[in-house]
Design a protein that fits this description.
Length: 99
């Protein structure tokens, strides 16, 4: 069973890394949105293409058009942090129990 424990530990580490990278991509998108970016820039297009599928459902749930402030990146960061804390720790605990 130690092989399965090692596999779960590796999956937990990769998930943690992927979630941290996505957090930085969301932060970059939020910063870029403050400076009126050029929509034809490939970096801007990448940031919007990668983050919009996760941000759109949050925007649909929380209509914030009246205040002019988009809180969806902060909410998504909170969701990712909770997911990282819960899921990665659970996988690591399960992996250590299988060793």
């Amino acid at each position: 069973m130690f092989v399965f424990g090692n596999l779960l530990e590796t999956v937990a580490a990769l998930l943690h890394l992927a979630l941290n990278i996505y957090i930085w991509i969301i932060i970059a998108r939020a910063i870029v949105s403050w400076v009126s970016p050029d929509p034809s820039n490939p970096i801007v297009r990448f940031l919007y293409r990668v983050t919009e599928p996760a941000l759109r459902p949050i925007r649909n749930l929380l209509p914030m058009q009246g205040i002019g402030l988009d809180l969806s990146p902060m909410i998504l960061l909170l969701v990712i942090y909770v997911l990282d804390s819960f899921l990665v720790r659970t996988l690591r605990d399960l992996a250590s129990n299988l060793r």
